């Protein structure tokens, strides 16, 4: 039995061709501690990282929706050895069925799926759930990333990817989910944001927002009267997917202003020239 376990551990530590090799100079033990940890069965295979506060990995359930069996098997083994509970669906329809019956903490979603593709799966999931979604795809064009995020994905990881980067992004999303659950309703001036229903109202008027518009507004409302730099916003909302010379932040701020000020309401999101933005009353 132990030989089988060690064989499984070794297979997880060998990165298939579609997974980028580990990022050195981290020691090999950082990336592959499975054999050592099987010496003590009570200790799951882990990459050292700060704890997820109230979360423990054994309580966290992840759904992987991936039609390529090799990738799905790799992710199932790797995440299971990290201590997560993992379910796998090989097409979008089955993934939606599982998500409708099980309360998952996070979903890893491939873009190119047979039948119902990843974009449509994300849209349907986001219609009635705020579960974090990390989208995997070989498409790396900006328009594809924008489409994935607009469909409802919280993060976007391009293949080939390093497994430790996927783990770090999973932990980041789980921390954000935990923080979001600590306060259900955010209020500022005449603006209200319900984090459970993802409903936004200004006075009594309901404001319809896309997934990323909502995420951006939530960030502002969690830090009212604070100047948020462009770098901070890109990190918290887009995970640096659109840094550098991109104007996507300005575009989304304009969208938010148009929707929040549609009936002549006073401006709440203000530009701090050469720095970033601030949510404040005039």
Describe the structure.
The protein is of the alpha/beta class and 282 residues long. It folds into two domains: 2-181, Response regulator (Rossmann fold); 185-279, Arc Repressor Mutant, subunit A, CATH 1.10.10. It has eleven helices and twelve strands. The protein has helices at 2-13, 28-31, 34-37, 69-81, 92-101, 118-128, 142-151, 163-181, 211-222, 230-238, 248-260, and strands spanning 61-65, 85-89, 106-110, 133-137, 155-158, 185-188, 191-194, 199-202, 205-207, 227-229, 269-272, 276-279. α1 crosses α4 (69-81), α5 (92-101) packs parallel to α6 and α9 packs across α11 (248-260). The N and C termini lie far apart (68 Å). Mean pLDDT is 79; it is low at 1-56.
Q: How much β-strand is present in the residues?
A: 15-25%
**How many angstroms separate the termini?**
68 Å
Total number of helices = 11
- Mean pLDDT figure: 79
Shape type:
globular
Q: In total, how many beta strands?
A: 12
This entry's quaternary arrangement is: single chain
Q: H/E element string?
A: HHHEHEHEHEHEHEEEEHEHHEE
Helix content: 40-55%
The biggest beta sheet reads: 5 strands, parallel
Secondary-structure-derived class: alpha/beta
Could you state the CATH homologous superfamily of the largest domain?
A: Response regulator
| Radius of gyration over all CA atoms, rounded | 20 Å
The largest beta-sheet arranges its strands as: 2-1-3-4-5
**CATH fold-type name of the largest domain:** Rossmann fold
Given as residue ranges, the uncertain stretches (5+ residues, pLDDT < 50) are 1-56
Please give the CATH class of the largest domain. Alpha Beta
């Amino acid at each position: 039995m132990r030989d089988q376990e060690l064989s499984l551990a070794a297979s997880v530590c060998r990165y298939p061709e579609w997974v980028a090799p580990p990022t050195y100079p981290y020691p090999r033990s950082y990336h592959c501690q499975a054999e050592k940890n099987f010496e003590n069965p009570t200790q799951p295979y882990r990459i050292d990282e700060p704890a997820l506060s109230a979360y423990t990995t054994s309580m966290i359930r992840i759904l992987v929706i991936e039609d390529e069996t090799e990738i799905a098997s790799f992710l199932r083994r790797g995440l299971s050895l990290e201590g997560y509970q993992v379910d796998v669906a090989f097409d979008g329809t089955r993934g939606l069925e599982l998500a409708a019956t099980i309360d998952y903490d996070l979903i890893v979603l491939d873009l190119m799926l047979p039948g119902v593709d990843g974009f449509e799966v994300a849209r349907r999931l986001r219609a009635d759930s705020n579960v974090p979604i990390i989208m995997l795809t070989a498409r790396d064009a900006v328009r594809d990333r924008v489409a994935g995020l607009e469909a409802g994905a919280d993060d976007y990881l391009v293949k080939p990817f390093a497994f430790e980067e996927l783990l770090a992004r999973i932990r980041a999303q789980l921390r954000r989910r935990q923080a979001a659950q600590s306060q259900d309703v955010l209020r500022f001036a005449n603006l209200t944001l319900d984090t459970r229903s993802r409903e936004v109202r200004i006075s009594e008027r309901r404001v319809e927002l896309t997934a990323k518009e909502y995420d951006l507004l939530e960030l502002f409302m969690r830090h009212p009267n604070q100047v948020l730099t462009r770098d901070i916003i890109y990190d918290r909302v887009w995970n640096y997917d659109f840094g550098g010379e991109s104007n996507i932040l300005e575009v989304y701020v304009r969208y938010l202003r148009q929707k929040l000020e549609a009936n002549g309401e006073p401006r709440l999101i203000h530009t701090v020239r050469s720095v970033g933005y601030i949510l404040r009353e005039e």
